[in-house]
Amino acid sequence: MPSTFVYVFTPKEFFYFLFRKKTCPKCGGPLRKEKYFRVVSGKECGVKMRNLHVSKKWVKKYEYRYICQECAALFSLQELAGETPAQP
């Protein structure tokens, strides 16, 4: 199991994560935050660590997604922050 973890946010994603009201773009219902992780290569995340005694071969990359409590639509943080186009 990897001992290293990383969170990756753009400035827009970080602002949305901290300050924006979490409402569904489709129906206006409340969104529930869900945290999950993927185990990825340290090179994929751009992890640069020197002289630290941690494994960077495999890294837990934590991400957030949001689920609408009314229509059950699923959104990534990137979609809600306007970083990528929403899926149809």
Provide an overview of this structure:
The chain has 88 residues and is of the alpha+beta class. The protein has three helices and four strands, in the order E-H-E-H-E-E-H. Strands 1, 2, 3 and 4 form a four-stranded mixed β-sheet that branches. A hairpin with a 5-residue loop joins strand 3 (58-68) and strand 4. It is elongated.
Feature tags:
88 residues; alpha+beta; 4-stranded mixed beta sheet; 19% helix; 33% strand
What are the low-pLDDT stretches, counting only 5+ consecutive residues below 50? none
Strand coverage percent: 25-35%
How are helices and strands ordered from N to C? EHEHEEH
Mean pLDDT: 77
> What is the number of beta strands?
4
Distance between the termini: 36 Å
Please compute the radius of gyration using only Cα atoms: 15 Å
Question: How would you sum up the global shape?
Answer: elongated
- Main sheet properties: 4 strands, mixed
Helix content: 10-25%
Structural class of the secondary elements? alpha+beta
- Number of helical regions: 3
Write the layout of secondary structure elements.
Layout: E1 4-7, H1 11-19, E2 31-41, H2 42-45, E3 58-68, E4 74-76, H3 77-80
Parallel strand pairs: 1-3
Antiparallel strand pairs: 2-3, 3-4
